[in-house]
Each structure stands twice: as C-alpha cells, then as structure tokens.
Specification:
By secondary structure, the chain is an all-alpha fold. The protein has 16 helices and no strands.
Length: about 425
C-alpha cells in the first residue's frame, strides 16, 4: 500500500519483491510464466507489471466502496426521494465491505490468492451492473452490498507486499499500496461526481464494472501461482479472529484506534455532499461538489511520508500525532458549515490524519502476529465497522441537527477510539 519519502510518490518505487522461503506446510509455487518460486515473485514482463497493477487494482476496487457517496443527490432525484433519506446507502457499502473482509480476506493465509482475486472481481462486476439496472433503493442497496463485499482484493494483496518488503522499509511499502487506495477514494468522489453529472449515476456504476473486471482479472493473472495445502475448515481464519485479537494487545489497539479515526473521517466525508449540494448549505451542483474530493489527494501525498516516519519513530508516535490532527479538524469542519476556507483546511487535515494513522496501525497489525492475513482482516473490519456505524448515525444527525450534528458524531468517535485504548492495560 518505496526507498525514501521522495521516491515513494510512485506506488511501485522500491517495491521489488524480496525473496522469502515458502511458509511451513506450503509448497513452492510458480509465477504466471511457470518460472521461479512464489517467494521470488513473477519474472520477466510479469515482474514489471506486478506492482503497477496492484496499485491500479487497489485504486479501482477502493473507489467502488465510495461510488455511491457523491451520487446521492442524483440517486435521490431519480428515485423520487431526498439526499438525506438515501444517505444510508453509503453505510451499506461500508458494511458490505466489512462483511467481505470478515469472510474472504482471512483466506489469504490458506488458499490460492490468484484464483480468489479472479472470482471476487467477477462477482463485484456483476453486482455493479445490477446496481446500474436497479429500479429502487432496495435493489440498489442489495447490489451495493454484494459489490462491496466482493471488493476486498486490496486486502488480499497488502499482506503479500508486507511479506516481501525488507523489515526496515516495510511501512513505506505498505504506505505505497495505501496511497493507491486513497487515490481510488478521491477518484470515486471527483470523477464519480463529474461523470454522474454528465452521464447519470447509472453510467458511473457501469463504468466501474468494466474497470473492475479488466483490472481484477489482469491482476489475478499476474499473481504468483500458489499451491497451498489448506489445513482445517475453509473459514478457520474467521473463527480464529477473536482469539488472535485477544492475545495481541497491539493488534487490539490498532483495531480500536483505527475504528475511531475512520469513523470520524467517514461521518464527515460521506455527509459532505449533503452540505455542499443542499440549498441550506452551499447549493453546489453534484459535479462541483465532487471536485471538493481533490482535497483527498493529501492522503496520497502523506502516505509515503507517514511510512518513513513509522519506520523511523514507531507506530505509536505517528498515531498519537494523527489523532491530534483529526481533533483539530473537527472544529474546523464545524466552522466550514459557514466558511469555505475552514472547510478546505479541515479536509486536508482529516485526510492527512486518516492516512498517517492507517499506515501506522496497519503496519502494526501486519507484523504483530504469525497470521498476517487474519490479523489484517481483524484490523480492516474493525475500521470499516466503525466507519459504517458513524456514517449510519451521520445521516440522521444531519437531518435533525444539520452539519453541527455530523461534526458531533465525528468528535465522539475520536474520543471513543482514543480513550478506549488509553485505559486498557497491556497483558
């Protein structure tokens, strides 16, 4: 999710897979060309395409989760409703992604990731096409739920990147993939809003389906062929999550803190289109509101810098600083209800805080146990569950108390995320 901060602006910089021995109980695998063990990664043209495709695939699949958020005003108009009444669609997408992570991401420790990436990409494609053809909000919600549940490909690939990275640069390598992920989030809001205004929201879902199919299958083809001997039930990783979190205080702390951080960001960011487009707010068009998502590019810039800071100073200090930035952004967001300059500043700060916290916490989650895919599942599910719940509360809060209610939800999530981990004793 690069060797120095300056080199890390490119998602593939410095990310040549490092040779590692095959895990115990697993036999060597070959790349797409049939040469070389899985520990050495693909060779030839496959090696050159490996990391660029992971970055692109991560961006596209991440965009699918947030596709509905900038389109809410258009969907509401088409469905004969109001934007605040369909705001819950954003939380449906996040809950679907959390469910997909819970069931599918742990399989990265036990099954062939190449086959799994291909199947999930096809399922997501079919669901996105179904969303484009939906006649009502119920059908749309169901399609969005399935598409988001199948959009877990990045979290199958992040442990692979972390596994092959040199120990002293692991956070920077993870940060490179995370930069791709946040680029996808920005693209969903900016390009989704512009395309929705020009061609309609259904065309946006159809375009996302095509991109998901092409990049998902291309990424699956380029991955090493893994011949793994699965032991125990298929979903043994799912059953193991609670015990794994209980035995690892560091993993538990990463999960809870990111749930608080992601919830605060999600409450404000998924509700932003309502503030920007409603007459009581700024009265912008959907396209203009979508351009506001360009402030999310701060995340892509901060990610490699955060990776370097984590490698140098440790995850705890970076997360503490990120929470400080997020706490500062909440009152700025509140002021942004009336002052555009404050809203712009808050957007930059909250994205910087979110991505710095994410890089630090995810690196910790990937390295604190002997089952990285399962630990990563616990971490990302916790984050998205926190985000989905905050989004679900933010919609009604906006309807009852306006933008101030949304900011109150965000502030409460930050307080809960930090205090819950601050009081727990490490065993």
């Amino acid at each position: 999710m690069p060797s120095s901060p300056s080199a890390s602006a490119s998602p593939q910089a410095g990310l040549e897979p490092a040779p590692v021995p095959p895990p115990a109980g697993k036999s060597p695998a070959t790349g797409p060309s049939g040469t070389g063990p899985s520990g050495t990664g693909p060779s030839g043209i496959a090696a050159r395409l490996f990391l660029p495709l992971i970055a692109l695939c991560t961006a596209v699949t991440a965009a699918n989760i947030y596709l509905a958020a900038p389109l809410l005003p258009l969907i509401a108009h088409d469905m004969g409703s109001t934007p605040s009444a369909v705001a819950w669609l954003a939380s449906v997408a996040q809950l679907g992604y959390a469910a997909g992570l819970l069931f599918f991401a742990p399989l990265g420790d036990s099954v062939n990731r190449r086959r799994l990436v291909a199947v999930l990409s096809l399922v997501a494609t079919a669901a996105l096409l179904a969303a484009a053809a939906s006649a009502g909000t119920g059908a749309l919600a169901g399609a969005v739920l399935v598409a988001s549940a199948a959009t877990v490909v990045p979290q199958l690939l992040v442990p692979l990147v972390a596994e092959r990275a040199p120990a002293d640069r692991r956070a920077r390598h993870v940060a490179a993939v995370i930069a791709g992920l946040f680029t996808g989030v920005v693209a969903a809001r900016v390009l989704g809003g512009l395309a929705g205004e020009a061609f309609g929201w259904r065309a946006v879902f159809m375009g996302a389906a095509v991109l998901t199919a092409v990049l998902g299958l291309a990424t699956a083809y380029i991955l090493p062929v893994e011949r793994r001997q699965r032991r125990g039930p298929l979903f043994a990783g799912l059953v193991a999550i609670p015990g794994l979190v209980r035995r690892s205080p560091d993993l538990w702390r990463a999960c809870v803190r990111q749930a608080g951080m992601y919830g605060a960001w999600s409450a404000m960011w998924t509700s932003l289109a309502l503030l920007l487009t409603e007459d009581e707010g700024y009265g912008m068009t959907t396209a203009a509101a979508g351009l506001f998502g360009l402030f999310g590019l701060a995340a892509s810039v901060v990610a490699p810098l955060a990776g370097g800071l984590v490698d140098r100073f440790g995850a705890t200090k970076v997360v503490r600083s990120a929470y400080g930035l997020a706490a500062l952004s909440v009152p700025l967001f509140w002021l942004g209800g009336q002052a555009m300059a404050a809203l712009c500043a808050a957007a930059v700060l909250v994205h910087a805080a979110l991505v710095a916290s994410h890089v630090a916490n995810q690196t910790l989650a990937l390295t604190t146990t002997s089952a990285p895919a399962t630990a990563n599942t616990a971490y990302v599910v916790a984050g998205f569950a926190g985000g989905a719940l905050a989004s679900a509360l933010a919609g009604p809060a906006f309807g009852h108390w306006g933008w101030g209610g949304v900011c109150a939800v965000a502030g409460a999530w930050l307080v809960l995320g930090w205090t819950a981990t601050a009081v727990r004793r490490v065993r």
